[in-house]
Specification:
The chain is α+β, with helices and mostly antiparallel strands. It folds into two domains: about 50 residues, no CATH class; about 100 residues, no CATH class. The chain is built from three helices and nine strands. Strands 3-2-1-6 form a four-stranded antiparallel beta sheet. A hairpin with a 5-residue loop joins strand 4 and strand 5. The longest helix is centred in the first third of the chain and has 27 residues. The protein is elongated and about 65 Å long. About 15% of the residues have low confidence.
Amino acid sequence: MSQLKRLILLACLVLPLAVSAAHHEEKERFGPPSDGAKDMPGAVGTFPLYPPTSYWIDTDGVAPGVAGCHYGTDADGTTSNGRAFAEGCREDGLLIESNPGKGEVHAHSKDTGHPDLFNCNDWCKGNDSSGGQCKTVAAPAPCTDVDPDMTSGMCVCD
């Protein structure tokens, strides 16, 4: 019985420290309250809001010569969640090319993807063309199901 008392005493001593450390760690993740909330009683601060994991499907895989769409789905890939974004041309002319493979359901941790960047001129030259550039074009479905005016990007070779 005395060993059980020791375990309970140890738990009583350690648990508050663990909770305090977790609380301190949680407080560190808060930003200052927004301008609209900063003078209100009870305003704790701002925090990032994202799902821990989101699931996506890419319509074209890694295919710089094809306009693609990345659309949100459930983990099984059977139900759209109504979210989508298309590939695109950056101001510096590089193509933002979504990945991984065509039709592959994949997870984004904290709703963050990691698209590839392509220099279209180099990509086109490597595919037996004299050169090329990133062009903005109409996005494919299901991106246009989310926004009929959504555009995508692709490498267009000379």
